[in-house]
Design a protein that fits this description.
The structure holds two protein chains of two kinds. By secondary structure, chain A is mainly alpha-helical. Chain A contains 16 helices and ten strands. In chain A, the strands form five sheets. Chain A has a two-stranded antiparallel sheet with strand order 1-2. Chain A has a two-stranded antiparallel ribbon with strand order 3-4. The chains are: A mainly alpha, B mainly alpha.
């Protein structure tokens, strides 16, 4: 009977889950999770507390990544296949300023600033030329960038050579190659922080930091969506030509989306590296690159709670399926394929996909967003015709 | 100078493998406007089939049947197997999504790639499988002037060249090829002309996958080992080759593959070997930024 009630109210349920205020119960559960796990460990001698806390932390970090991807793919429709490279760039940027590799040990805010700057720099390096290309080509270029980035990280443990000439001394070792940079500093939060202060040594501290990041990204995404920038992004996603015709500087907004997503990904990389105290080049392998895509598509492209829930499911599921080592990939791929075939909007179902015939883009995303537009007229037109009315606030 | 020629010859041989796989990618892109990430894994399956067939005829470095029988058998088996696999993928995974557009197809192709890869890893073996190519074809080095090359490399190149010529004839000089080109050009209009679009797409997939399968066999014969992960890198490099030649363009893929092989080999020989793999991707980015339609493509009319 409960099931029947659920089924009958599924539209209202879906409507509720599509809105960001669905995040409130998620956070209400998520924040006290370490205490709950600790209680179970203390009172019942359960040994799984730390294990599941680690999984929860990993999920939170991936949720942050997925939210970053959501800005690029979900809002703007940029198919950045090599997205995970920015996670790696953030990771290594932090490792370089907080370890003995180049003998730098910056405090927290210095490290954050460096990570953000480095990621922004690489985002510009990749984005400025690449974002002029149409969808398919952008995908290939970003993919190539990710592969090159990983290869560079793997190869920079010795001085680079060009035509037999060696650049740099023999002791040149920037990234420590395949071993990664070990013994990275933990985060040292300032002493006057309200609850978490001092060096972060426990997993639970990183869990909460990750939750803060997720909350921050979620809030940013939500607020951004209803500003001029956010609506420009959605207009670009829906119909680039119409957006351009309405006076939106498509290129500039694309670069902005790229920057935003990359910096966010870099911050996630930083927290992850600080937690594991290790920067590993295989964390941003190409085969990992599609994980955030799976999370985003599972949860619902363009939806903030969808991104988070998708990330949690995709992260937790393999641990539940742990006994079947290789099978988990087989199952995953099967789920992904079935999902795309039968429910391409993902669980939270906000954005559909429709082929774009003109302009060579790979996809045109139809909006079925449950977020009401600020302007009731636009919302009415959108709902009635399914067409997008490009951002009127620009004129 | 001899060193340069040696690199070029090596590059041509590797490039012919890239060309075979790139042909499949470009054919599929031309007809469906999708990037088929699963193509590299079809290549891998072809290689495994060939390894299996070779294993039937070879026991511990001694071949039971002459190479002249075994090698063509391996090629045919891989061609058939890979072709069937490609057809199955198209029919089961891509056809339902055709209406949904490129992004869905690309993501599905990644899913299919993983599915194939890990199914092989589980069902067959995760360890590298040796192919007793030495038992079949003795690893003699031929000396053509200043250059030396193993016999197998020459065989690889010749087989690939023959196939490429055959494909060229098929695509450009037969009615069936004309139908495929028509479908690639304008699917709707081709339908109006009475072309069975579904069948054309299926055929394209089968042909492209068969070529990839043969590429896999040739790789196995030349390098003596196959493993479940080999499709990854070659798939990506074949992309680079296809884009270099002009994605969607058949002759472009052939020339692009050979060119990429040669350039990569030269880069490895003259710059540094560590750089060799990344070179393909640097070239890819360069091409996409400077001339995205590749060597043989046409400048698109709409500049969105």
């Amino acid at each position: 009977m409960v099931l029947r009630a659920l089924w009958q109210s599924r539209d209202r349920l879906n409507d509720f889950l599509g809105r960001p205020r669905a995040l409130v119960p998620i956070f209400l559960v998520a924040v006290p999770l370490p205490f709950l796990l600790q209680y179970l460990v203390d009172s019942y001698g359960w040994t799984g507390g730390e294990y599941w806390l680690r999984i929860a932390t990993i999920s939170a970090l991936w949720a942050g990544l997925t939210l970053a991807l959501n800005i690029m793919v979900g809002y703007t429709g940029l198919f950045n296949v090599g997205f995970i490279a920015f996670y790696g760039i953030g990771s290594y940027a932090y490792a370089l300023v907080a370890s003995d590799q180049v003998h730098q040990h910056l405090p927290l805010w210095g490290a954050v600033a460096v990570v953000m700057l480095v990621c922004a720099a690489f985002a510009l390096l990749l984005g400025l030329p690449a974002l002029r290309l149409r969808g398919d080509y952008l995908a290939i270029v970003t993919l190539a960038f990710a592969i090159i980035a990983q290869q560079l990280v793997l190869d920079l443990d010795r001085p680079p050579t060009l035509f037999g000439h060696q650049f740099g001394p023999d002791s040149f070792n920037l990234t420590n190659g395949a071993q990664g940079i070990n013994l990275v500093d933990r985060l040292r939060l300032p002493e006057n922080f309200p609850l978490l202060h001092g060096p972060a040594l426990q997993t639970r501290t990183y869990y909460w930091i990750a939750l803060v990041l997720v909350a921050l990204f979620g809030y940013l995404s939500h607020r951004w969506r209803s500003t001029r920038v956010g609506r420009a992004w959605v207009a670009i996603r829906e119909d680039e030509l119409a957006a351009r015709a309405m006076g939106i500087n498509v290129y500039r907004y694309k670069v902005l989306a790229f920057l935003a997503g990359s910096v966010m990904a870099g911050l996630v990389g930083m927290v992850s590296t600080a937690w594991l105290a290790d920067a590993d080049p295989y964390t941003f392998d190409f085969t990992q690159a599609l994980l955030p895509y799976m999370m985003l598509f599972l949860g619902g492209v363009g939806s903030i709670p969808g991104a988070i829930i998708g990330a949690v499911i995709v992260t937790v599921l393999p641990f539940l399926l742990q006994p079947l080592v290789y099978y988990k990939w087989v199952i995953f791929s099967a789920i992904l394929i079935l999902l795309i075939i039968f429910r391409p909007q993902g669980l939270m179902g906000t954005v559909q996909m429709r082929p774009r015939r003109a302009l060579g883009g790979t996809v045109e995303l139809l909006t079925e967003e449950l977020e009401p537009a600020r302007d009731a007229d636009i919302a009415g037109v959108e709902a009635a015709t399914g067409a997008i009315v490009a951002d009127r606030s620009v004129t | 100078m001899e060193y340069f020629l040696q690199q070029v010859v090596n590059g041509l041989q590797v490039g012919s493998l890239y060309a075979l796989v790139a042909l499949g990618i470009t054919l599929i892109y031309g007809i469906l406007q999708m990037l088929n990430f699963a193509h590299g894994d079809v290549y891998m399956v072809g290689a495994f089939i060939a390894a299996g067939v070779a294993g039937l005829f070879v026991r511990g470095q001694v071949a039971f049947a002459p190479a002249v029988v075994v090698v063509p058998l391996m090629l045919v088996a891989a061609m058939v197997g890979a072709g069937l696999l490609g057809g199955a993928i198209e029919r089961l995974a891509y056809r339902p999504l055709r209406a949904r557009g490129g992004l869905a197809l690309v993501i599905t192709s990644i899913g299919v790639a993983l599915l194939i890869r890990y199914t092989v890893a589980i069902q067959v073996t995760a360890a590298p499988v040796p192919v007793q190519s030495d038992a079949l074809v003795p690893p003699t080095l031929l000396h053509l002037g200043p250059v030396e090359t193993p016999v197998m490399a020459l065989v690889v190149f010749v087989v690939a060249a023959v196939l490429m010529v055959g494909l060229d004839i098929f695509v450009f000089r037969t009615n069936f090829g004309a139908a495929i080109r028509a479908t690639a050009q304008d699917r709707e209009a081709a339908g109006f002309m009475g072309i069975d679009v579904d069948r054309m797409i299926l055929t394209t997939f089968v042909i492209g996958s068969a070529l990839a399968g043969i590429g896999g066999v040739l790789f196995g014969l030349r390098y003596g080992t196959v493993d479940y992960f080999m499709g990854n890198l070659i798939g990506l490099k074949a992309f680079a080759a296809a884009v270099l030649g002009g994605i969607g363009n058949v002759r472009g893929a052939m020339v692009g593959g050979l060119t990429l092989g040669v350039l990569e080999s030269l880069a490895g020989g003259f710059v540094s070997t560590a750089f060799q793999d990344t070179f393909a991707f640097f070239l890819l980015i360069l091409v996409l930024i400077v001339r995205p339609w590749g060597m043989f493509g046409e400048r698109p009319l709409e500049r969105a």
